[in-house]
Design a protein that fits this description.
By secondary structure, this protein is an alpha+beta fold. 37% of the residues lie in helices and 24% in strands. The relative contact order is 0.20. The structure holds zinc ion.
Length: 426
Amino acid sequence: MFCGVVCVILASVTALSARHSLRPARLLPDAASEPRVRQALAQLGTNTATITDEQVRISEIPAPPFREAARGEYVAKLLASAGLKVHTDEVGNVVGERTGSSPGDLVMLAAHLDTVFPVGTDVHVRREDGRLYGPGISDNATGLAALVAVARAMHDAEIETRSTILFVADVGEEGEGNLRGMRKLVETYRKQLRCVIALDGSSTDYVTTAALASRRVEITVTGPGGHSWSDFGAPNPIHALARGVARFVKMPVSDNPRTTFNVGEIQGGTSVNSIPAKASLKVDLRSESETELGKLETRFRETIQAGVDEENAASRERGVSAKPLSVTATVLGVRPGGELPANSPLLAAVHAADDYLGNRSRIERSSTDANIPLAAGIPAVSIGAGGRSSGAHSSNESYDPAGRELGLRRVLLALLGMAGIDSAAH
Ligand SMILES: [Zn+2]
């Protein structure tokens, strides 16, 4: 009973009134006054030191893109110790099931396992004045620690819900992982999935309800190669890319819808005195509009081709009869866009939790695991798991756990808002 009715009321109250006059949170205390829920909320406050220790242990298990297995195994043990039925699917997602009273009705809480840091990165965590320093300590060891802590708090308090909850540690959120873990999960559970709450990083001052669409493309230019002196004039893949990139970056992009590009990687060449036989680059294209994104990708491909054509022409003009350059483009990743309706019960559940906890959060658009369910029309949000961090995706990443209980309680209350408490079982 809890979920269905309350969500509808929450949705309508939220839609109808400014959040701060008619306080939807008035409804939440009923649930939050449930002794078991209060016990779980209390535990998330008293256990923060243990949760931080667990976060450090998780963060110190390397999980580069496509190599999440070792960390996955560790998190699987933690979820099993919180009473969940745990299995690992064929792409490496760790799925812990907490059965609810109404079968076939699933709510997913997911945190990605992978980091951006390549094999060999020193992931040791340094503690200084209560702050934690280490690659991936926040993104996403914070989310994984919260996933385990919330599962454990519900288990210890014996909270029963209507919906079955899947606690998932998924793979492939970062970079070229291309959201492959969440794609597999949505494919597997699509029919029963009521919503997805993705936990990513720290903080409580936002809720991502819109998916930023992006495309990542790798361009490779190949040519005859040669000696820099005796073969001068032969077409050079690096020169061609330079000509193309110079054209591309000069082109204006839309501010509204916000559209961006980034040539993030470029490589090629064997030695300074050789004309390279191959050079390549990787570009990240993003936009709030899929149409703009499509136009930007077309323009990118055209300008790179123009750069290659220009280099081939220059070579002909120098009277050099060499095999012209050729180009191949590989799509490395496509992240679809999508948006959660403003009157969504899921958003109302997060807002109600915010109101109950006295937290303020803004709506955001970004590229997260939520992109996939949102693009599939399944309600989804991505939120932080509390505390504060800086330097994500850099080796200077750090995390301050102070105040993390607010984030943990927000996750629990939003989750219960969607899964519903089975008061018959309480
Ligand atoms: Zn992340």
